[in-house]
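Much of the work behind modern protein science is quiet bookkeeping, done one molecule at a time. Below is the pair of lines this work produces for a single protein:

***
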Amino acid sequence: MNVLKTSKIGQNGEEIACDFLLSRGHQILDRNWRSGHLELDIVSEDQEGLHFVEVKARTAPVTSTLTDQVNPIKQKRISAAALQYLNKKHLVGQEVFFDIVSVLFDGQETVVRYFPHAWIPMYV
């Protein structure tokens, strides 16, 4: 798969993920937020608090699991980006959650799965 097609799948997946989160009462605060080499796909807020949302957009057939794609190394990078975000936006002390939205494009069907509170970061 070429980079352009992969990028388009990612962009479409993020659009669908944002629409999905909005339908669940989230307000989108930021998309593709960067600090140096760290990135957050979506930062949203709802009545629970702030959500740092990793979006995984894929086309069928799927050859790897979400566990493989959002492994402990990826979780650590997202957690580090979230800490940067909280510090730069002066939001330290907010209740935060780490979520995953999976968007699977399977022919004419698009399957969205939401994994709220997918992991709890360990800061050591």
